[in-house]
Amino acid sequence: MKTTSFTQVVASVLLMALATNCQVLHASSCQAEGVTRTVLQQHDIDVPGKDTVQDIVDFGPGTTFPRHTHPGEEVIYILDGLLEYQIDGKPAVTLKAGDVFFVPAGVVHSVRNLGNSSGSELATYILEKGQPPVTCVQ
């Protein structure tokens, strides 16, 4: 029978609390069914009033994340799938695994998974401190 030490239990509880806290700090009112966001890290940076957040964003087959903005730049690396990015006023851009994309601060955009399987991106944000990371736009 496997035994678990008190230290292992405490470490597990602390890690779960830390993960939950990161999710709460990064929570947003802008949600989309079939899209999940996993916070990898969040740090202050040497630029006053800014911090950086790195997420993996998973898109279920055929899902769309609606028009939204970020209070800072978004640097995107496509991990998997075929994703279409639509920046207001510009032609849509379709990206596959290994492609990169940049969204300037405050620019309205949306993302759609064009594939029949899941797609994912590594999203790195340089954000204004204290602002919600994502704001939906009607």
Shape: globular
Q: Tell me the CATH superfamily.
A: Jelly Rolls
Roughly what is the average pLDDT, rounded to an integer?
84
Q: In CATH, what is the class?
A: Mainly Beta
| Biggest β-sheet: strands ordered side by side in the sheet | 1-2-9-4-7
Helix/strand order, N-terminal first: HEEEEEEEEEE
State the end-to-end distance.
56 Å
The percent range for helix content is: 10-25%
How would you characterize the largest beta sheet? 5 strands, antiparallel
Q: How many domain regions?
A: 1
The low-confidence runs, each spanning 5 or more residues with pLDDT under 50, are 1-27
Number of helices: 1
Roughly what fraction of the amino acids lie in strands?
over 45%
Q: Please identify the structural class as seen in this structure.
A: mainly beta
CATH architecture: Sandwich
Compute the number of strand runs: 10
Radius of gyration: 17 Å
For this structure, the CATH topology is: Jelly Rolls
Keywords: Signal
Pfam families: Cupin_2 (PF07883)
InterPro entries: Cupin_2, RmlC-like_jellyroll, RmlC_Cupin_sf
Signal peptide: 1-27
Describe the protein's architecture and organization.
The chain has 138 residues and is mainly beta. It has a single domain, classed as Jelly Rolls (Sandwich), CATH 2.60.120. 14% of the residues lie in helices and 48% in strands. It has 1 helix and 10 strands, in the order αββββββββββ. The strands form 2 sheets. The chain has a 5-stranded antiparallel beta sheet with strand order 1-2-9-4-7. Keywords: Signal. It holds the Pfam family Cupin_2. InterPro entries: Cupin_2, RmlC-like_jellyroll, RmlC_Cupin_sf. This is RmlC-like cupin domain-containing protein.
